[in-house]
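ok so i was messing around last nite and threw this chain in just to see what happens. nothing serious, just curious
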Amino acid sequence: MHADAVRNADMKGAVAAGHPQTAEAAIRMYELGGNAFDAVLAALAAACVVEPVLTSLGGGGFLLARKNDADAVLYDFFVQTPRRRRPEAESEFYPVIADFGTAQQEFHIGAGSIATPGTVRGLVETHKVVGSLPLKEILAPAIEFASQGVGVNALQAYIFSIVEPIYRATPDAEALYGGEALQGEGTLFHQPALADTLTWIAAEGDAPFYQGELAHRLVEHCRQQGGHLERADLERYRVIPRVPLQHRYHGYRVATNPGPSSGGTLINFALTALDNQDIAAGGFGSPAHMKTLAYVMAHTNIARQDGLLALSQHHKQLLEAYRETVAGHPVNNRGTTHISTIDGRGNSASLTLSNGEGSGQLLPDTGIMLNNMLGEEDLNPEGFNRWPCDVRVSSMMAPTLAEDHRHLIAIGSGGSNRLRTAILQTLCNMIDFGMPPEEAVNAPRIHFERDGLDVEPGLGPTTLDALRAQYPGLRPWSSQNLFFGGTHTVCWDGRNFTGAGDPRRGGVFLSTGDRYSHHAGPGSGPEWHRPGPGSHCQQFLHSAEKTGIGDFFLIVVTDCIY
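result:
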C-alpha cells in the first residue's frame, strides 16, 4: 500500500468498462473510500471473471496511471516470449477455425501458444505502488462473481459462440465452459476454482503464481503438454514502468502507451499530422472533416506497415522512432477489453487487457484460461515457432490520458487494429468539436485498412460521395458495430463526472451515486466548451441504425474482430 494513500469514505469517482459487473466492482471501491487505482484494479479482476474470452489472469496488459500530483506512468505487464523454444515436433500447437457467420478465421492454440503471463504480477505490483485499499477488498467483487455465478449477456454469448472450438478444445476447458458458459445468453456461469485462485492471490499476492505452487503447476503442465514455459520465465518476469509518450494536441496534453508497443506511437503520429488542421471548420461529418481523417489514417497505416512515407521532417523522425522502438518486439493485435477510471481527487487510470483468444489450456485446478499470444501471426513473420526469445511482446493497445486546464480524460479501446482509430476519433470529437463524452463515443466512425475505407452509418450523402470518390472501395456498414472499437471514456472537470461505455462493445459508464445506470443522462455533466461550429453529430445519429449483435459481419478476415 502506498505510504501516503488516504482512505476516505465514499470517494467520488467514475468508471467506464465493457461489462456492468466490471464497472460495479470499480464503484464498490469508491464506496469503500478507495481511489481510481483501487477501482481500476478491482475492475481488472472482475473483467477476468465476467469477460472471460477478452481477458484472463493468464494474459497481460498495460496500465497508464496518473496520481493527481505526479506525472503519469505506464506499467507494462504484457506477455513475454519464453526464454527458450522447444523443438517444433515437441510443441503442442495447432489451428482451429472460428466461425463469424459470414466468414471464418484461423487461430492457433495449444500449450505451445502460451507466452509468459503478466496480469497477476501487474495487478499485485501496481497495487503496491498506487493502491490504497487492501488487496483482499480489491479482489472481493471478482471472488463474489466467480463463486455466485455471472449471467452470460448477449455480447459475451456472441463472443463465446465465435471461439467455441477453443473453449471446448481440452477436457478441462469443456468441463469449465461447456456446461454453462457456452449454453448461450442468460446462462449463469459459475467459476469456483477461479474464486479459490483469486482468494489465494488476495492472501499471498503473486508469489504462488511466479515462484510457488501455481508456478510449479504451470511449468509442469507445459512440460507435459508441449508448452515452452520454464521456471525461469516466471521467476524473472517483471512489470516494466515506462515513461508515456506525450504530445500537445490543440491545447491538450495527451499521454499514451510508448514503445515497444506500437498503438500509442501510431496515435501520436496521427495527432501530429492533425496538429495544423482545423478539422472542425466544416462541422462534424463534413466532407472536409472525414476526408482529412481518412487521409491521416491512410498515411498512418503506411507508417505502420513500412514507414516509407513522411509528411514532414518531424513525421520522418517519428517514423524512425517507431521502427526503432518496435524492432525486435513482435506485435500482438488480438482480443482486448478496456477500463477507464477517475476519482474526485484527480487520480486517473486507463487500463487495456488481453488474453488473445485463449489457448484452450487451463492452468490446472485454477479456472485460469491461459493466453495464446505465441499463436499470433504477426509474432511469427518467418513462420510459426520462429518468434524471438525472451522479449516483451508489443501491442496495438493504447491506454490514453488527456488533460487541459479544465478537463481530465481517461480513454482507451478494445478492437485490434481498429482501437487506434477509435481512440483518435473519440479524442478529436471531444477536443476539436467540443462534444460531451457520450456524444463523442456514439458518433459514427470510419476506419482505413488495406486500401479500403469502412464507414459506419450516420454520415450525409455528400460526405459519402466525397469519400467514395477518393476511396472507390468504400465499405458502408448498415449499423454501428464492435468492428470499430469500443472507447470506454471517463471525463472530469473538477466538479462533475461524465463518460460513456461504448455501446459497440457492451460498454457501461457508472459514477458514484449512479450505480445502476449504464450511461449519464442528458444534462448530467458539465457544459463542454465548443471551440468550433456547433456539433452536428445528433442529426447524423438520428438516422443511424441501432447496434445489433445479430447484424455483425467480418470484413477483414485476417484481423481478429474483437
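not much to say yet. The radius of gyration is 22 Å.
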